[in-house]
């Protein structure tokens, strides 16, 4: 069970003066149950790439398989395969449109042709997932909620489709630290409990380092790093070249090292970072 | 001299309706000309609502907001106030109106009826200040997020604004874009003496300010220098906010018996203190 991206190339506005190759020969397999982060500067091709994962874009060359089915063909199997991939866009709250929270979240399940009873089940489960009380919020207008709540309604709309692969493009942009942590906690929960694969696109290196088991760095439409977080962020030159920064912890430890404290600079978490500093202080004594 | 004076300001959304909501509750705040003030607080604490009062996008339900001595509630002052205070929002794509960078920057002064020679001069100056001279003839959609935000800042500068209010200007940007915008803001403050009001969820950005204002549930619950605010690790966490990583690491090291001074909020300070340890 996996998403297989097979040697895809994507050209925007092909055969016009504005032609631009956004993806070049990308090969990538995302296994069910993985937590992958895709990072890269604006324009590096990461959003173009993730839009291929549920056939919002069709590759110019190459193919994308979900659980073995080519999602860009026109048959039932491809349709079912596409539905396994849920996509939460940037600022998903801009896409709310229904009169009530319930109807907005139920839109997808309704379109899948589910019975009213099943739809309600899906909606309930999705609202529970994003911490919105069903009874309290189901009849409210989504447009009279706070920004954070609107975001959660929009995410619930994707969760209600029961995806096997969940793609999130900057899901926490503009949320405060607590809102960010809450949402990530939920994402980790659904990842662990339901074995859903998560593909997180983010500019926040700290979040990416803390959450993902695999980091993919995009630059100029190509994958330049595909590694575990520690290995990925230890390649500081490549990361900088890709227009990115290292996590705050890495930057802090690097600065200590430059000032003459011989620390191990690979830790990414607070506690591991503190241990590394303590070890260096003790060694010096 | 005071540029912005807010006195007993309250703001109600949906006033007199069943979902009436008090977003600001008796705010008192003064911002001096040339100051750099960061505003932090959770979502819904009232930061953006307050910021929108500074250029009369919102008017007080009760209380007073004055800009350079002019009350925002008097419509006669509106145009003058908006020339004093430039706003930059989170999403750069929602703020750009023209098809060329130079036209976008000229949009504001054109509306003020500034003569075209003068506009050209202002556009050139504004582009220089934000380091975007090379992009004068570019279409804005070809720019990166950080460059678009610098164009938005230049647009405000071309109005000869004295104060920039930036509402999470880096929330959507990649690390390079964030660094560009922060460097531009710092430069405007230090070199051009522009008053900066900077709303952010990134504490590392708030550290650049002269003063940090902390908001909670529509009220100002604390204010002080970055060092005064960010060294109160527990208090900030209770508020649902973060502290800069260096402060957090310093607190953990102290727990483990390392003696460090209380003022650490930057990597540099932590590095210097650790290297001086005996």
UniProtKB/TrEMBL annotation, chain A:
It holds the Pfam family ABC_tran. Its main location: membrane. Residues 3-245 form the ABC transporter domain. Keywords: ATP-binding, Cell membrane, Membrane, Nucleotide-binding, Translocase, Transport. One of its GO terms (molecular function) is ATP binding. Its EC number is 7.-.-.-. The keyword Protein biosynthesis does not apply. Transmembrane segments: none annotated. InterPro entries: AAA+_ATPase, ABC_transporter-like_ATP-bd, ABC_transporter-like_CS, ABC_transpr_CbiO/EcfA_su, ECF_ABC_transporter_ATP-bd, EcfA2, P-loop_NTPase. It is an enzyme of class 7 (translocase). GO terms for cellular component: ATP-binding cassette (ABC) transporter complex. It is found in: Cell membrane. It is a peripheral membrane protein. SMART domains: AAA. NCBIfam families: ECF_ATPase_2 (TIGR04521), PRK13637.1 (NF010158). ATP-binding (A) component of a common energy-coupling factor (ECF) ABC-transporter complex. Forms a stable energy-coupling factor (ECF) transporter complex composed of 2 membrane-embedded substrate-binding proteins (S component), 2 ATP-binding proteins (A component) and 2 transmembrane proteins (T component). Belongs to the ABC transporter superfamily. Energy-coupling factor EcfA family. This is Energy-coupling factor transporter ATP-binding protein EcfA2. The lineage of its organism: Bacteria, Bacillati, Bacillota, Negativicutes, Selenomonadales.
UniProtKB/TrEMBL annotation, chain B:
The lineage of its organism: Bacteria, Bacillati, Bacillota, Negativicutes, Selenomonadales. One of its GO terms (molecular function) is ATP binding. It comes from the Bacteria. This is Energy-coupling factor transport system ATP-binding protein. Residues 4-242 form the ABC transporter domain. It is found in: Cell membrane. Belongs to the ABC transporter superfamily. It is a peripheral membrane protein. It comes from Propionispira arboris. CDD domains: ABC_cobalt_CbiO_domain1. Keywords: ATP-binding, Cell membrane, Membrane, Nucleotide-binding, Translocase, Transport. The keyword Ribosomal protein does not apply. The keyword Zinc-finger does not apply. GO terms for cellular component: ATP-binding cassette (ABC) transporter complex. SMART domains: AAA (SM00382).
């Amino acid at each position: 069970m996996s998403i297989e991206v097979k040697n895809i190339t994507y050209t925007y506005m092909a055969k016009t003066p504005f032609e631009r190759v956004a993806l070049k020969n990308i090969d990538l397999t995302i296994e069910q149950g993985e937590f992958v982060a895709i990072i890269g500067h604006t324009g590096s091709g990461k959003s173009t790439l993730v839009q291929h994962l549920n056939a919002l874009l069709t590759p110019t060359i190459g193919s994308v398989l979900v659980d073995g089915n080519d999602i860009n063909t026109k048959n039932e199997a491809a349709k079912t395969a596409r539905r396994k991939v849920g996509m939460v866009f940037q600022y998903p709250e801009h896409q709310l449109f229904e009169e009530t929270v319930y109807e907005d979240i139920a839109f997808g399940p309704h379109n899948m042709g589910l019975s009213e009873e099943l739809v309600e089940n899906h909606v309930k489960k999705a609202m529970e997932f994003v911490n919105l009380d069903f009874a309290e919020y189901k009849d409210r207008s989504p447009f009279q909620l706070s920004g954070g709540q609107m975001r959660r309604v929009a995410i619930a709309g994707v969760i209600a489709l029961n995806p096997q692969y969940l793609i999130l493009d900057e899901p926490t942009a503009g949320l405060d630290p607590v809102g960010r942590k809450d949402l990530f906690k939920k994402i980790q929960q659904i990842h662990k409990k339901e074995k859903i694969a998560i593909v997180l696109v983010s500019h926040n290196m700290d979040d990416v380092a803390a959450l993902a088991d695999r980091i993919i760095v995009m630059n100029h439409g190509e994958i330049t790093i595909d590694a575990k977080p520690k290995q990925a962020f230890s390649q500081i030159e490549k990361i900088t070249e890709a227009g990115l920064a290292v996590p705050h912890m890495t930057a802090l430890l690097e600065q200590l090292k430059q000032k003459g404290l011989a620390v191990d600079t690979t830790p990414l978490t607070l506690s591991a970072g503190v241990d590394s500093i303590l070890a260096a202080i003790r060694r010096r004594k | 001299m005071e540029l912005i004076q807010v006195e007993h300001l309250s703001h109600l959304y949906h006033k007199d309706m069943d979902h009436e909501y008090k977003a600001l509750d008796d705010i008192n705040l003064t911002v001096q000309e040339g100051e750099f003030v960061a505003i932090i607080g959770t979502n819904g604490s009232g930061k953006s609502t307050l910021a929108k009062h500074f250029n009369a996008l919102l008017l007080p339900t009760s209380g007073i907001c004055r800009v350079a001595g002019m009350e925002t509630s008097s419509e006669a002052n509106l145009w003058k106030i908006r020339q004093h205070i430039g706003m930059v929002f989170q999403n750069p794509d929602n703020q750009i109106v023209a098809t060329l960078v130079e036209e976008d920057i000229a949009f504001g002064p054109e509306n003020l009826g500034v003569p075209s020679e003068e506009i050209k001069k202002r556009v050139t100056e504004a582009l220089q200040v934000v380091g975007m001279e090379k992009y004068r003839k570019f279409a804005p959609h070809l720019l990166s997020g950080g460059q678009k935000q610098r164009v938005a800042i230049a647009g405000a500068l071309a109005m000869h604004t004295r104060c920039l209010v930036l509402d999470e200007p880096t929330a959507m940007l990649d690390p390079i874009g964030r660094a560009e915008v922060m460097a531009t803001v710092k430069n405007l403050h230090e070199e051009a003496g522009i008053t900066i009001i900077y709303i952010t969820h990134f504490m590392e950005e708030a550290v650049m300010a002269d003063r940090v204002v902390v908001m909670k549930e529509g009220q100002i619950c604390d204010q002080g220098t970055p060092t005064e605010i960010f060294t109160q690790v527990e208090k900030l966490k209770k508020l649902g906010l973060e502290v800069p990583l260096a402060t957090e690491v310093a607190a953990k090291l102290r727990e483990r018996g390392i003696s460090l001074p209380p003022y650490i909020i930057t990597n540099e300070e932590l590095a210097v203190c650790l290297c001086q340890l005996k």
